[in-house]
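Progress against Task 2.4 (sequence-to-structure conversion) is shown through the following example record, which the project officer requested during the mid-term review.
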Amino acid sequence: MTTRSVVNAEQLDFDTPGRRDYHVKLEHTTIWAHHLIPITVIVGPNAKPGRGLVAIGSTHGDELEGPVAVKHLLREIRTDDVPGRIILIPVLNPMAFKANRRETPDDGVNFNRAFPGDPKGSVTVRLADMVTRFIFPQVHVVLDIHAGGEAARFPATSNVHLMKDPVQRKAMEETARGFGTKFIMQYQNVTPGLLTGLAEDLGKISVDTEMGWGRAVQAAGVSMSRQGVLTPAVRQGQLRGDPPANRHYAPSEQRLVDTSHPDSHRLAAFEGHFEPLVGLGQAVKTGRRVGWLHDFNRLDDPPMELPAPHDGDILGQAWGAKVIQGQGITQVGKPVEWAR
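Structure tokens generated for the chain above:
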């Protein structure tokens, strides 16, 4: 069993060659205790300031493919094979992870809306501040592995924002393709406080994913997540050897699809029950009926028809049948061109 050193964030060593396994302390809100965040730092002889890769699991506590994949990588990556810098964080938000919840139970905050954080804020906001001040300056590649949890389900996707800088855009798309997902989703960039949004604003190669749903562990999602960390680690010079064999979708099969326009999303007009009529990843034409929304308080009324807003692919659906008014219940991604 690995013995982890219990430290404050200021004590993390990102420069000395070798491997260090830490538990970073984050003071508990109500009792005399600390939350412990597992962080492993592997530094090679050629590590350069500001260059490295971080792989993150459990930004949300009910999304499990990331924690499982990064936990495997803790055993698989050999220190002697790391010339640069690799940081592995299997469970970044232990409070939400232990509660098996999307939000942090201590303060009710969605960690992926809390960046850049505040050292004097609530516990989730302080956690975001720790990542911003101590982790981001050490790396140029940020991989944040998500899944749908209990909110939504997706075909496995790796996700990017549309960047104005053509060099950064191409690097992010190429890194996203390394996961081997069929769909690379280009999504909206207006939500405040995103981990990846801040990382890309800082000039990082910033990619996140959707690798499963339902508080379950999807085998393909774990495999893609592992592949998606190792591939850029090699290509960016942080890990020796060849990229892992692609066990999933070849580049010729991958599609860049955009969901950034509000019209891509169908919202529930009323509280009800969602009935999907097409499968995840299925291609649809404009106007095709993709689902029904039922109101069981009005049993004799017909359900509301949900037509596809445009040609594209089904990239997301509500996971639970019961939905609240205004909830996103289906999204259709529109194919777009890759960066050149």
